[in-house]
Amino acid sequence: xxxxxxxxxxxxxxxxxxxxxxxxxxxxxxxxxxxxxxxxxxxxxxxxxxxxxxxxxxxxxxxxxxxxxxxxxxxxxxxxxxxxxxxxxxxxxxxxxxxxxxxxxxxxxxxxxxxxxxx
Length: 119
Hints:
Elements: H1 3-25, H2 32-49, H3 57-73, H4 79-98, H5 103-115
Helix pairs in contact: 1-2, 1-3, 2-3, 3-4, 3-5, 4-5
């Protein structure tokens, strides 16, 4: 998979998670079949991106951010997803130590704080 293709997939997952989050926040109504389809698509993207790593620290942080954003809006909850989420949270913690101060670092720290539980 090319680096550009990976970035496009990261951006796509972030946009899908944002659209679900903002639909809930703006009180736009989603039909149950639309909500189910969007959640299914988000879950598929998470599963596709989970085993991948970014070429740079920044891209890897962006990848973790997208996956965690997906988990934050996903209605799927099973032991395997929880294990994957915890793995991405641990990876994010290490990336936060490596990232220079920037918006990406703030966003990753915010989602990390929202989703993290004591390990």
